[in-house]
Structures are given as C-alpha cells and as structure tokens.
Amino acid sequence: xxxxxITIIGFACFMTGMLAIILSLxxxxxxxxxxxxxxxxxxxxxxxxxxxxxxxxxxxxxRSSDFDPEM
Length: 71
What we know:
3 helices
C-alpha cells in the first residue's frame, strides 16, 4: 500500500473516533456507528477508542520513514 493512503486512512479513523466521542457527549450519534451504540454504551465507547488509537497508529506508520510497505 502507498504510505499516503495509509496516512489518510489513519487520519480518517482518528477523526471519526474523536468526532463520535465528542458528539456522544451532547447526545448525538454518527449514523455509521449508531448500530454499535444500540448494543451497549461501554462497548460503543471502547470501539470509539479503538478507532482513535488505531487511527493514530496507522497515521504514525504511514508517516514514519522506516516503514517499507513492499517488504
């Protein structure tokens, strides 16, 4: 995969997770994540945290100079 694509995917995951956490504080939902919020509030929060931290990891991997995707 291209490093730029990994960076964009990581940024999108991070922003989606952060936006979902912020909107849940005021009682709103992102329609893509509304299905997981019906299961349980705690489980939905864990999924949002996974999105945030997974996005940060993907962003870091995409921007690091050591990473060679062809290996």
